[in-house]
Amino acid sequence: MRSWSAPEVPSLTAAGLPAATGPLRLYDTAAGGVRATRPGPTARMYVCGITPYDATHLGHANTYLAFDLVNRVWRDLGHDVLYVQNATDVDDPLLERAEQTGEDWRALADREIELFRDDMTALRVLPPAHYVGAVEAIPLVVEMIEKLRGKDAAYTVDGDVYYPVAADPSFGAVSRLDRAAMAPLFAERGGDPDRAGKRDPLDALLWLARRPGEPGWESPFGEGRPGWHVECAAISLEHLGMAFDVEGGGSDLAFPHHEMSAAHAQVATGEAPHARAYVHAGMVALDGEKMSKSRGNLVFVSKLRASGADPMAIRLALLAHHYRSDWEWTDGQLAAAAERLARWRAAVERPVGPDAAATAARVRERLADDLDAPAAVAAVDAWADAALLGEGDDPAAPAHVRALADALLGVAL
């Protein structure tokens, strides 16, 4: 599947600023605390992608901007970044929407994926090296299920293939939840705990036998389509291998999605861990409730753009919140971000300004500490306010801050 176009990211050392020092520290859900990331020369990251309908709402954008910051900080530290993302382009919610609207499911998926690409390009989110759809990954999924079957880690219920959670003794280590907490979340987030014939209510679907009127693909276990969790396990394993540096997504993916994907990969390979860190972004609310497709309370990036909002203002509005926080969107936040963007642009247009080295150090320091974007943004605010007051006489400073905002915060001035 085609990714989207990459913006040009300036090198801060080439721009004349000192080299960054690390490491990047992130909150790891599995560890229950902030830990240093320790990538090799190439940092490896997998971020779970959209199910392509109702794209791209601000909850999506909030998540992908968070991991765009991870990407940018690693690059500033001198790492190459191998970034992989999927798109679940066949799944129950997509098929249900297509049936409701009378649209072909494939056409719906293709249109929404293209809209997502346009939004990511506008927001200057660095693209994945591999952008992989579930449909094109079916051979990988089949191969993984075959490995699980060979390890007695798959069984059949009326033609559907399930993964037994008992196959992985470490199950629960990613989300750090006990079974009492897992049960309601499994039911809420796509699981089927009440399915008759399952060995354990938490056992996860690997392969869904084809239903009348639905798409299906041939496999050694019958015609059907992949389960959600095994899709991401197979794609990440193919392109990143085991023990990659970060698996990311929204906080609602910690369980069951990341828990199950890790279990599938670890049992299939006999290795652990699937990822070295599991990093999760907070939820965005509107009118007091989490922004979600089921509630219909979505604010779309494309509609904000169509109304005349500068994508960089949208980006700044999101960056005003710490990536792990749950927060509520209001129109006033976009207006405040537009004012901030105008101040920054006016400041970097001045011929001179305060020396930018301390600002660069502060931005790097705050981003390296679990992506404290609000504090990083505040550091640029302080520089811009001083520049607009006529402070400083460094002719290189405006260009340095322009490059800094672009390289690390992804804001083109």
Secondary-structure topology with pairs:
Layout: E1 25-28, E2 33-36, E3 42-47, H1 58-76, E4 80-87, H2 92-101, H3 105-122, E5 130-133, H4 138-150, E6 155-157, E7 160-163, H5 179-188, E8 204-209, E9 224-226, H6 228-240, E10 246-250, H7 254-269, E11 278-281, E12 284-286, E13 289-290, H8 301-306, H9 311-319, E14 327-328, H10 331-348, H11 357-368, H12 373-388, H13 397-409
Parallel strand pairs: 3-4, 3-10, 4-5, 10-11, 12-14
Antiparallel strand pairs: 1-2, 6-7, 7-8, 8-9, 12-13
Helix pairs in contact: 4-6, 4-7, 6-7, 9-10, 10-12, 11-12, 11-13
Describe the overall structure:
The chain has helices spanning 58-76, 92-101, 105-122, 138-150, 179-188, 228-240, 254-269, 301-306, 311-319, 331-348, 357-368, 373-388, 397-409, and strands at residues 25-28, 33-36, 42-47, 80-87, 130-133, 155-157, 160-163, 204-209, 224-226, 246-250, 278-281, 284-286, 289-290, 327-328. The chain is 42% helix and 14% strand. The strands form four sheets. A five-stranded parallel beta sheet has the order 5-4-3-10-11, with helices on both faces. It has 413 residues and is α/β, with parallel strands linked by helices. The chain contains 13 helices and 14 strands.
Q: What is the 3D shape? A: globular
Radius of gyration: 22 Å
Structural class: alpha/beta
Record field, number of beta strands: 14
In whole angstroms, how far apart are the ends?
A: 31 Å
Q: Which band does the percent of strand residues land in?
A: 5-15%
Mean pLDDT over the residues: 96
List the defining traits of the structure above.
four-stranded antiparallel beta sheet, five-stranded parallel beta sheet, alpha/beta, 13 helices, 413 residues, single chain
